[in-house]
Design a protein that fits this description.
Length: about 450
C-alpha cells in the first residue's frame, strides 16, 4: 500500500531519492512468515520505514543529496539501518535532504527540492524534508532523520509530524555520513508520539562501533509514551524559555504555543519562566563549530574513494590534485562550498582561538544555561521554529535568513540534550502546521515522550 501511495504522489512531493520496491516487499514477506510462525522480531516487525539518504544502506544508493556521491553504493549498513532490518522493518527507500544535511528547506538537495504535502509551493523544512514529507504525505508510516541543528525537529514542525532528536550518544552514529560529529544525532520521524517511541527503542542503545555511544540502558520511552492523553502531569515543572519566543516569532505560531502550554497546565503541570541569556550567541557559535567539523569531514571526498570522479579536460596528465579540484568543484553545491570555506577559515592558524576557540566557550555557557534552567524545571518548552513553512525560493538567496529557522533548535545540539517537536495545530494566518518543542536533560529522553503524549 505504501509503495502504491509513493507511486501516486511522489511525483509531486519528491520525498524520495530512491525507492526499493523489491527489497521492501522481500522484507515484508519475510515478516509475514515470522508473523505466521508467531516469532515477530519486534513490535514494529513488518512496519515499513523510510531512511534519510545520509545513512549508509548496504546495496542501496546513499548520496547525502549530493552529486559527489552519485552512484555510490555502500558496502555496509549504518548501525541504525542494521537495527531496523534486525527488527523486521522493511526499508521503502532513501529520502531527500539538503546536501550533506546543510539547510532548513531541502532546497539545497542536488536532486531538486521536496514539496510540503500541506501546500506544494511551500518548503517541508530541512535538512530532513524528505523524511518528514514522506510521513506527512502517508508515503511511509515511519521515517528516520538526523538532527545536527534541528533537521528532525524543524521539518517535523512545518509538516505537522512528530520528530525526535535523542540525547547525543543515545543512537549510534556509525554509518551516518558525518556533517558535524559533535552535533549529529539520528532519530524518529512519525505521525504519533507512541510511534516515535517504538522506533526510538529499535534504533537506540550502545554500539561499540561509535566511541561517543552511551553505554547505559535506553530510557523507558515506550512506557512514557503509552500513558497517552490521559497522562497526569501533576508535579511536573515545565519551563518556558524566555529567549525563545515573542519578538521574531509569527503570531500564529506563538498562539498555538501558548495554547499547548495551557493544555499542559490542565494536565497538572506547573509552569515556570526560565532565562537562558547565552542563547543569544547560539547561532553564531553553531555556525563556527558546525562548518569547522564539516570542512574536516568533507575532506574525505577526494575523487578517489567514493562516487564522482571528474578528470579535467585540457590538462595534460592531470595530477591527483587536478582531479580532486575538478571533482569537488563539480560535485559540491554552493552551500557546501560556503561552509567548507567558513570552516577552513575558522580553523586556520592565527584565527583558531578567535573563532573556533570562542565558539567552544560559548557552547559551554549554553550548557550551563541549560543546567541552571533544569534546576528550576523538569522540561523546557518553546516553539520549534519561529514560522510556519515558507514558500519555496523565498530564502534561498539569503543564507542568514535560512540559518535563523533554527534559532530554537540549535541550543539542544550544542548541549547534547534531547528534544521533540510535536504538532500543535495550525497557525491562524496561513492554516499551516506549528510545532511545539520539548527539551529534557541528557539521558532523560523519556520525559519528552511523557509531555508529548499529553499533548496528543
Ligand atoms: N539547518 C541547520 C544547518 O543548516 C541544521 C541542519 C541539520 O540539523 N542537519 O546546519
Amino acid at each position: 500500500a505504501f509503495l502504491d501511495r509513493i507511486a501516486a504522489v511522489d511525483g509531486e512531493v519528491h520525498a524520495f531519492l530512491h525507492v526499493d520496491p523489491e527489497g521492501a516487499l522481500a522484507a515484508a514477506r519475510a515478516s509475514d512468515e515470522r508473523r505466521a510462525a508467531g516469532r515477530l522480531a519486534s513490535p514494529l516487525d513488518g512496519v515499513p520505514v523510510a531512511v534519510k539518504d545520509v545513512l549508509a544502506t548496504e546495496g542501496l544508493p546513499t548520496t547525502c543529496g549530493s552529486k559527489i556521491l552519485e552512484g555510490w553504493i555502500p558496502p555496509y549498513d549504518a548501525t541504525v539501518v542494521a537495527r531496523l532490518r534486525a527488527a523486521g522493518l522493511p526499508i521503502l527507500g532513501k529520502t531527500n535532504m539538503d546536501e550533506f544535511a546543510m539547510g532548513s528547506s531541502t532546497e539545497h538537495s542536488a536532486y531538486g527540492p521536496t514539496h510540503n504535502p500541506w501546500a506544494l509551493d511551500r518548503i517541508p523544512g530541512g535538512s530532513g524534508g524528505g523524511s518528514a514529507a514522506a510521513v506527512a504525505a502517508y508515503e511511509a508510516p515511519l521515517a528516520i532523520g538526523t538532527d545536527t541543528g534541528g533537521s528532525i525537529r524543524q521539518p517535523g514542525a512545518v509538516t505537522g509530524t512528530v520528530g525526535v532528536k535523542p540525547t547525543y550518544g543515545g543512537v549510534s552514529r556509525y554509518g551516518l555520513v558525518a556533517m558535524a560529529n559533535s552535533l549529529d544525532q539520528a532519530g524518529p520521524v512519525t505521525r504519533t508520539v507512541l510511534d516515535a517511541a517504538l522506533l526510538h527503542e529499535v534504533i537506540a542503545g550502545h554500539d561499540p562501533l561509535d566511541s561517543t555511544s552511551i553505554d547505559q540502558p535506553v530510557p523507558a520511552v515506550v512506557e512514557a509514551a503509552r500513558a497517552g492523553a490521559s497522562v497526569d502531569l501533576a508535579g511536573l515543572r515545565v519551563g518556558i524559555i524566555r529567549e525563545l519566543g515573542g519578538e521574531g516569532y509569527q503570531p500564529g505560531v506563538q498562539e498555538r504555543f501558548d495554547e499547548a502550554v495551557e493544555l499542559l497546565v490542565q494536565a497538572g503541570a506547573e509552569i515556570v519562566q526560565v532565562s537562558c541569556p547565552s542563547f543569544e550567541h547560539a547561532l553564531a557559535a553553531y555556525y563556527l563549530v558546525m562548518p569547522s567539523e564539516a570542512s574536516s569531514n568533507l575532506a574525505r571526498f577526494d575523487a578517489m574513494r567514493y562516487g564522482l570522479r571528474v578528470v579535467p579536460e585540457g590538462v595534460e596528465s592531470p595530477s591527483a590534485e587536478d582531479v580532486m579540484r575538478a571533482t569537488r568543484d563539480a560535485g559540491f553545491g554552493d552551500e557546501v562550498k560556503r561552509r567548507i570555506i567558513l570552516g577552513t577559515y575558522a580553523l586556520s592558524s592565527g584565527y583558531y582561538d578567535a573563532y573556533y576557540g570562542s565558539a567552544q566557550k560559548v557552547r559551554t555557557l549554553i550548557s550551563r544555561d541549560f543546567e541552571r534552567a533544569f534546576d528550576k524545571a523538569d522540561v523546557l518548552v518553546s516553539p520549534t521554529a519561529p514560522t510556519t513553512a515558507f514558500k519555496l525560493g523565498e530564502k534561498l538567496d539569503d543564507p542568514l535568513a535560512m540559518y535563523l529557522n533554527d534559532v530554537a533548535t540549535i541550543p539542544a545540539n550544542l548541549a547534547g540534550i534531547p528534544g521533540i517537536s510535536v504538532p500543535a495545530g495550525l497557525a491562524a494566518e496561513d492554516d499551516l502546521p506549528v510545532g511545539f518543542q520539548v527539551l529534557a536533560p541528557a539521558t532523560a529522553d523519556d520525559r519528552l515522550y511523557r509531555v508529548g503524549a499529553a499533548l496528543e
